[in-house]
C-alpha cells in the first residue's frame, strides 16, 4: 500500500524538477511579467476609481452587467450546472421584480414586493456565506476528523457556500439599488433637485405610499413604525429595505441624511454594514479582476513573454 503513495510523491518531485529545468534562465522574463502585472493593477485601479468618481451610474451599471455575465462564461466552460440552476432562477425572478419596479404608474404593492424579495436574497446570502465561512474554519481547525469527513470535501463545501453567499449578496444589493432609484422617482415624493414633488400625509409611508396603522410608540405584531431624525415616519420593513438593502442613507421624502446608527442599535445588525463593505470588495474581484488578468495576458502575449 506504500508503493502507490511513494510513486505519487516521486511523480510530483519529477514534475517539479521538470518545471525548474524549463524555467531556468527565465528570471529576467519572470521579473518583467511581475512588473507588467503590478503596473496593470495600479493603472486599472486608478482608472476605475476615477471612473467611479466622475460617472458613478455608468460604472455601477457596467460592473453589475459584468457581475452577471462573467460567471456565465466560467459556468459553461467549467460545467458548473448546480451554479447555473441557482443563477438562472435568481435571474428570472429578479428580472420580473425589476420589470415590476420600472413600470409607470407604479403599483402600490410593488415597493414592498421588491424589498421582500431582495431582503430574502440578502438574508439567505448572508446565512449561506456565514455557514460557508464556519465550514472553512471547521476544516482549518481539524474538526472534520471527528466526523470522518475528508478535509478537501468540507473545504470545498465551505468555499462554494461562501462564494454563493457573497456573489448573490452583491447581486441582490446592486439590483435593489437600481429598483430603489426607479421607485423613488416614480412614487414622486422625491425629485433629482431634492425637493419633494408631492406632499406627504402624516400617516403615509414615503417608501411605499401606503397608510401606516401602528403608532411610533406602539409595538406592531408584524412590523413596527420607524421615525427618522427628520420626523418622517415609515413602515419598519420599508425603511430597512430602503437603507440596508437599497444602500440609501437619506430620507426617501426630504433627502435628509439618515442616522443609521440610531436605526441599528442591535449589534448583530451592525455586522450587515461590515458585510456590505465585504460585498463591495467582492464586486471588484468578480467583475474587474478577470478583465485585468486578461489584459495582462494580452500584454505578455504581445511582448512574446510566456
Automatic annotation (TrEMBL):
Could you tell me which InterPro entries the record lists for this protein? RNF121/RNF175, Znf_RING, Znf_RING/FYVE/PHD
Q: Which GO terms describe its biological process?
A: ERAD pathway
Q: Give GO MF terms, alphabetically.
A: ubiquitin protein ligase activity; zinc ion binding
List membrane-spanning regions: 28-49, 61-80, 86-103, 124-147
| Gene3D superfamilies registered for this protein in UniProt | Zinc/RING finger domain, C3HC4 (zinc finger) (3.30.40.10)
Q: Which UniProt keywords apply?
A: Membrane, Metal-binding, Transmembrane, Transmembrane helix, Zinc, Zinc-finger
Q: Which domain of life is it from?
A: Eukaryota
Q: What is its main location?
A: membrane
GO CC annotation, single? Golgi membrane
Q: Where in the cell is it found?
A: Membrane
Which residue intervals define the domain RING-type in the entry? Answer: 205-255
Q: How does it sit in the membrane?
A: Multi-pass membrane protein
PANTHER family referenced in this protein's UniProt entry, alphabetically: RING FINGER PROTEIN 175, RNF121 PROTEIN
Mind telling me what this protein is named?
Answer: RING-type domain-containing protein
Biological source species: Denticeps clupeoides (denticle herring)
Amino acid at each position: 500500500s506504500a508503493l502507490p503513495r511513494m510513486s505519487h510523491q516521486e511523480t510530483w518531485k519529477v514534475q517539479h524538477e521538470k518545471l525548474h529545468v524549463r524555467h531556468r534562465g527565465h528570471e529576467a522574463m519572470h521579473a518583467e511579467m511581475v512588473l507588467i502585472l503590478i503596473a496593470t493593477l495600479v493603472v486599472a485601479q486608478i482608472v476605475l476609481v476615477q471612473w467611479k468618481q466622475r460617472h458613478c451610474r455608468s460604472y455601477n451599471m457596467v460592473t453589475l452587467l459584468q457581475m452577471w455575465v462573467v460567471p456565465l462564461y466560467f459556468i459553461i466552460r467549467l460545467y458548473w450546472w448546480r451554479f447555473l440552476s441557482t443563477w438562472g432562477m435568481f435571474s428570472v425572478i429578479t428580472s420580473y421584480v425589476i420589470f415590476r419596479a420600472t413600470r409607470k404608474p407604479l403599483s402600490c404593492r410593488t415597493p414592498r414586493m421588491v424589498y421582500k424579495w431582495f431582503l430574502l436574497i440578502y438574508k439567505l446570502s448572508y446565512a449561506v456565506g456565514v455557514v460557508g465561512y464556519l465550514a472553512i474554519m471547521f476544516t482549518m481547525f481539524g474538526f472534520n476528523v471527528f466526523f470522518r469527513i475528508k478535509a478537501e470535501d468540507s473545504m470545498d463545501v465551505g468555499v462554494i457556500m461562501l462564494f454563493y453567499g457573497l456573489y448573490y449578496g452583491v447581486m441582490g444589493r446592486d439590483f435593489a439599488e437600481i429598483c430603489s432609484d426607479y421607485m423613488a422617482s416614480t412614487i414622486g415624493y422625491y425629485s433629482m433637485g431634492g425637493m419633494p414633488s408631492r406632499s406627504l400625509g402624516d400617516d403615509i409611508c414615503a417608501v411605499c405610499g401606503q397608510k401606516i396603522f401602528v403608532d411610533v410608540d406602539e409595538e406592531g405584531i408584524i412590523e413596527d413604525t420607524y421615525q427618522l431624525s427628520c420626523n418622517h415616519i415609515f413602515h419598519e420593513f420599508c425603511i430597512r429595505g430602503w437603507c440596508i438593502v437599497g444602500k440609501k442613507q437619506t430620507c426617501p421624502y426630504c433627502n435628509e441624511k439618515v442616522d443609521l446608527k440610531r436605526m441599528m442599535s442591535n449589534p448583530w445588525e451592525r455586522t450587515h454594514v461590515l458585510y456590505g463593505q465585504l460585498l463591495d470588495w467582492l464586486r471588484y474581484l468578480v467583475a474587474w479582476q478577470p478583465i485585468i488578468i486578461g489584459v495582462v495576458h494580452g500584454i505578455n502575449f504581445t511582448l512574446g513573454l510566456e
